[in-house]
Here is the input.
Amino acid sequence: MRADGIFIAVEVSDEAASDAALAAKLAEACPVDIFAQAGSGTLELVERNLDECVLCGLCLTAAPDATVKIIKLYDGEATLAPA
Ligand code: SF4
Here is the structure.
């Protein structure tokens, strides 16, 4: 799944997005509530919050390798590197 704001896009592999435990971890980790859990437990991206991303990298730490990508649309789609 991917959602695009004006400055930031977030991409999550479909496999990771359907993992309820990971969805809960991401919802907990993000300080600006870009990740949420649907009623079924799967991941939702909160589009109105995308551009609030502070590039903290906590979602990258919470998720296994490269399942979450933070894409800087203002910088030629460069991806945020894990801390
Ligand atoms: S980098 Fe930080 S603010 Fe941005 S989506 Fe990940 S956890 Fe949220």
About this structure: The beta strands are 2-4, 8-12, 35-37, 43-45, 68-72, 78-79. The helical segments are 14-17, 20-29, 58-62.
